[in-house]
Specification:
It is built from eleven helices and three strands; from the N terminus they run H-E-H-H-E-E-H-H-H-H-H-H-H-H. The chain is mainly α.
Length: 215
């Protein structure tokens, strides 16, 4: 149950601030209230949901501090995995498919799908480590990241430039240059973090300096 809700968040179906009504979700998914509440507890522990007294369960809204921490962990995990790769690298079929997957949304101006393809690219990078625990950690991070992305007013301007960067990292890996790909990825992730922090800062200024509650 938790995996289904996490996937819905990762795919952008539940944006930050969404109230998750037990009755409607339980009916739609055909699960008991106890099962749903257990999933809510787990996702709250993963920082995806927050409970508000007398109001219910809500999808978490992220702050600048959350963004900085998510990207700190991403650099440790993603760059660490990629840096450790040496020639011959594991099969890059999943990484390559994620790069190609990003081209179709661009042609159809489907920016949510473009963001999804980009998240899949990073999940596939981490999957190269061959570690179920690392994959699970990354799945949670990417669900958080989807919520972070909702703070970007222009998703096309944010996501589109990274398609070329994804392909460059793939090319580095095909050449057996894991350390070089990791260096590129570190620059890439720091640039993305700077863009998101700047967007959140502008939004805070526009709303009188008040950031949304982080839960």
């Amino acid at each position: 149950m938790a995996a289904i809700l996490r996937s819905r968040i990762s795919d952008g179906y539940f944006p930050p601030g969404t109230r998750l009504a037990e009755d409607s979700i339980g009916t739609a998914l055909g699960v008991s209230r106890n099962t749903l509440r257990e999933a809510f507890r787990l996702l709250s522990h993963e920082r995806l949901l927050v409970h508000e007294l007398n109001r219910g369960m809500f999808v978490r809204t992220y702050t600048i501090e959350d963004v900085v921490d998510v990207y700190r962990v991403r650099r440790i995990v993603e760059c660490g995995v990629v840096r450790a790769l040496r020639d011959p690298v594991p099969s890059l079929a999943g990484v390559a498919a994620a790069v190609e997957e990003g081209e179709a949304p661009l042609r159809h101006a489907d920016w949510q799908a473009l963001g999804t393809a980009n998240l899949r690219f990073h999940q596939e990078l981490v999957a190269l480590a061959g570690s179920a625990r690392t994959n699970e950690l990354m799945s949670g991070l990417l669900a958080e990241l989807r919520l972070v992305f909702h703070g970007m007013a222009n998703p096309r301007r944010f996501h589109e430039p990274y398609l070329a960067r994804n392909r460059e990292i793939l090319d580095r890996l095909r050449a057996g240059d894991g350390p070089g790909a990791a260096d590129d990825l570190e620059v890439y992730l720091r640039a993305a973090e700077d863009q998101i922090v700047a967007a959140y800062t502008r939004r805070g200024a526009e709303t009188g300096g008040a950031e949304p509650a982080g839960g």
